[in-house]
Design a protein that fits this description.
Blueprint lengths: L2 H21 L5 H25 L5 H24 L5 H23 L8 H26 L9 H32 L1 H4 L4
Helix pairs in contact: 1-2, 1-3, 2-3, 2-5, 3-4, 4-6, 5-6
Length: about 190
C-alpha cells in the first residue's frame, strides 16, 4: 500500500477518534476533536497531491478517497446536528447532494464514464471544510474555554454564531449548485432512454 492510500486510510480511522473526542466530556474536548478534524482534513489535501505528483494514483485510492471525505464530513455534520448546533435543512441539503452525486458516479461508471471532481465540487468541499473547522474552533472557545473560566462577552458569541451559521448556509448553497452542475453535465449518461 502506497503512502497516499495510507493517508486516506488514516483519515478513515480518525473519524471514530473525532466522534469520541467530540462527545467525551473533558476540558478542551472540542479543541481535541477540532485538532483531529483539521489533521484529517490535511490528509485529504496531502494524499491527492502526493498521488498525482508521484504517479501513485490507484483504483483503491480513487474509491476510498471520496468515501473517506464523505464519511469525515457527514460524521462531523451529524455530530453538530445531534447537539443542535446545525440546522437540519443544511444537513439534509448536503446529505442528499452527497448521496445523489455518489449514485450518479456509480451509474455513469457502469457506462464507462469517470466523473472527476469539478471546480464547483472542489469549491464546495473546501468551503465546507472551512465552515466545519471554523465552527469547531468556535465551540472550543465558547464551550472548552468557559470550563477554564475564560469567556468572551455574550454578544460576541451571538454574532459569531450568526456568522458561522451563515457559512453553513453558504456551504449548503454551494453544495446544491455543484450537485446541479454534476446532474446537468452527466444528464445524458443517466437518461434511461439513452
Amino acid at each position: 500500500m502506497n503512502l497516499p492510500n495510507k493517508l486516506t486510510l488514516a483519515r478513515v480511522f480518525m473519524v471514530p477518534l473525532f466522534v469520541l473526542l467530540f462527545y467525551w466530556e473533558f476540558p478542551a474536548h472540542y479543541l481535541a476533536a477540532t485538532l483531529v478534524f483539521v489533521l484529517a482534513s490535511i490528509t485529504d489535501a496531502v494524499d491527492g497531491h502526493l498521488a498525482r505528483k508521484y504517479k501513485l494514483v490507484t483504483d483503491f485510492g480513487k474509491f476510498l478517497d471520496p468515501l473517506a471525505d464523505k464519511v469525515l464530513v457527514m460524521t462531523a455534520f451529524a455530530c453538530l446536528l445531534e447537539r443542535q448546533y446545525l440546522n437540519i435543512v443544511v444537513f439534509l441539503l448536503i446529505m442528499v447532494r452527497e448521496f445523489m452525486v455518489s449514485a450518479l458516479r456509480l451509474v455513469v461508471a457502469g457506462k464507462g464514464t469517470v466523473v472527476p471532481a469539478g471546480f464547483s465540487g472542489k469549491l464546495k468541499t473546501a468551503f465546507t471544510m472551512v465552515a466545519l473547522i471554523a465552527y469547531m474552533v468556535y465551540l472550543s472557545f465558547c464551550r472548552d474555554f468557559d470550563s477554564f473560566g475564560l469567556s468572551l462577552p455574550d454578544a460576541v458569541y451571538r454574532w459569531t454564531e450568526f456568522g458561522l451559521q451563515g457559512l453553513f448556509w453558504i456551504a449548503a448553497a454551494l453544495t446544491v449548485w455543484s450537485g446541479g452542475e454534476y446532474l446537468m453535465a452527466y444528464r445524458k449518461d443517466i437518461d434511461p432512454r439513452a
